[in-house]
Fold this sequence. Notes:
Largest sheet: 7 strands, mixed
Distance between the termini: 37 Å
Structural class: mainly beta
Shape: globular
Low-confidence stretches: none
Amino acid sequence: VQLQASGGGLVQAGGSLSVSCAASGRIFSPNTMAWYRQAPGKQREFVATITSDGRTNYADSVKGRFTISRDNAKNTVYLQMNSLKPEDTAVYYCNLMVPVRAENYWGQGTLVTVSS
């Protein structure tokens, strides 16, 4: 399984940006797709997750500003980021987990930079 993230870039504070991640290969369901991020000098942290049946969960720091969604037919997960803050600057990584098979995959990351 491979995960390919795209859509990062530079945006001003208060702006919006969307990132996506397409999974390819032999993908089993049910699975959970998620976004994590890692800011310079910090540990990777959880951002949001969505299950195969659409249940979502968010980190408190992004609730109300970020929206995670997925297209199961395309094996793609999206993250719509609104009201961006400089502290949202990080490399955003997508993750695919298949709990029943103990499988866990990571994408290569895409950089999001929010200028003040």
